[in-house]
Amino acid sequence: MRTTTRIQRQRTQGWRKPDQCVIVDRTSNFGNPFTVAQLLDIGYAEPEARQTAVAEFRPWLRGSRSNSQSTEGDQRREKILARLPELRGMDLACTCPPGETCHADVLLEWAALPVLALEVRIASTRARVDRQRAFRGERPLYDEVALAAVLTRDVGPGYPLVDVDLGNGIPQRWDGGTWNQHLRSQRMHQGAVTARLVEVFA
Ligand SMILES: [Zn+2]
How far is the CA of 109 from the centre of ligand 1 (A)? Predict the structure, then answer.
């Protein structure tokens, strides 16, 4: 895959988006819902406000609801998750100056994951969102069985699915087996399997 980078989108009339580039600023579905303006409003100063906006974006995209507990927020995250695979191999354009921290850097990290790792990370993120929603008595947004299908898929020995996410987006089992092998050996019912997966991956 080609090396991708962040490009500064210019607001001037002559600026044209280069080839193999996706605009991810606030005019797009990929925008950061945590804005510098909001943070300035509640008393942050300039450099910290920008850093905090990105620092809040990272766990939020990974499914954390601690800074945004609304269904609207979950739907907004889903708009990004659904289209993240489109960002693979693309440069990303945002209005942030180069050298300053920007949420596009987080998107670049996700887009650089191997296809399978990205798929698993997206599914585990959705499972995490629904687990928090269930905890608050809210309706699930996702189909549990469809999520379980992604998370239990048998994959090659290079991709064992385990308990710990080593940072590459693939939760790995401690014994190196795949989740399917494990669940078959446990003879678990589908409902129990799904509950266990949501627990592990969320
Ligand atoms: Zn930016």
Answer: 14
Same domain, 108 and 195: no
Q: Is residue 140 part of a domain?
A: no
Give 105 Cα–ligand 1 centroid separation in angstroms. Answer: 8
Q: Are both 102 and 199 inside the same structural domain?
A: no
- Per residue in 135-194, pLDDT tens? 899 999 998 878 877 776 654 444 444 444 444 444 555 455 555 555 556 555 555 555
Q: How far does the centroid of ligand 1 lie from the alpha carbon of residue 10, in Å?
A: 12
Q: Which domain holds residue 156?
A: 152-202
pLDDT tens per residue across span 58-106: 999 999 998 889 999 999 999 999 999 999 999 999 999 988 999 999 9
Ligand 1 centroid to Cα of residue 166, in Å, is 27
* Alpha carbons 108 and 4: distance in angstroms, whole number: 7
What separation in Å is there between the alpha carbon of 96 and the centre of ligand 1? 4
Q: Report which of residues 90 and 115 the model is more confident about.
A: 90
- Spacing, Cα 124 to ligand 1 middle (Å): 26
Are 66 and 14 within one domain? yes
Distances from the Cα of 153 to the Cα of 37, 120, 149, 201, angstroms: 43, 10, 6, 14
Does a structural domain hold residue 125? Answer: no
Q: 21 CA to middle of ligand 1, Å?
A: 14
Tell me which of 115, 133, 161 is where a domain ends.
115
